[in-house]
UniProtKB/TrEMBL annotation:
The lineage of its organism: Bacteria, Bacillati, Bacillota, Clostridia, Lachnospirales. Residues 12-117 form the DUF6673 domain. Residues 111-134 are annotated as: Disordered. It comes from the Bacteria. Residues 114-134 have a biased composition (Basic residues). This is DUF6673 domain-containing protein. Pfam families: DUF6673.
């Protein structure tokens, strides 16, 4: 688990939890749908406001109603929305790297048949076992 904190909001997130991942996927789908509805032309302030609303909805879907108010403290800043998305992504990347570093040693590494194993061992500097001849 990792601590995700932005503004006055903080929570533990676990990117290996199937329920959390389901919620994340749903929130990402809604974000894509909402972003597709944002007008392509108009006043800059209106476009930023519409983009921010997409992020507000995303974080509310993911963490619960009112989350965006704690995160952005009443501000409608597109820059802050992008930073919050990046922070969540960084949290996910860090947790994923830690997960694979920790659990890769438990994976069984198969290197094929005997010829392939010999080639693999030769490439990786592993010597074959020496038998004692007395």
């Amino acid at each position: 688990m990792s601590l995700f904190k932005f503004g006055d909001f903080e929570t533990e997130v676990d990117f290996t939890d199937a329920d959390f991942l389901t919620d994340l996927e749903y929130a990402q789908e809604k974000l894509s749908e909402d972003a597709a509805k944002v007008p392509k032309t108009g006043k800059t302030a209106e476009l930023f406001r519409a983009q921010c609303q997409c992020y507000f909805n995303f974080f509310d879907y993911l963490f619960g109603e009112g989350t965006h108010e704690a995160m952005f403290q009443g501000r409608t800043s597109y820059k802050l929305c992008i930073e919050a998305g990046e922070k969540l992504s960084e949290c996910e990347n860090t947790q994923t790297e830690e997960f694979f570093e920790k659990y890769d040693r438990y994976n069984v590494q198969e290197h094929g048949n005997r010829q392939q194993r010999r080639y693999y061992n030769k490439q990786h500097g592993k010597k074959k076992k020496q038998h004692y001849k007395g």
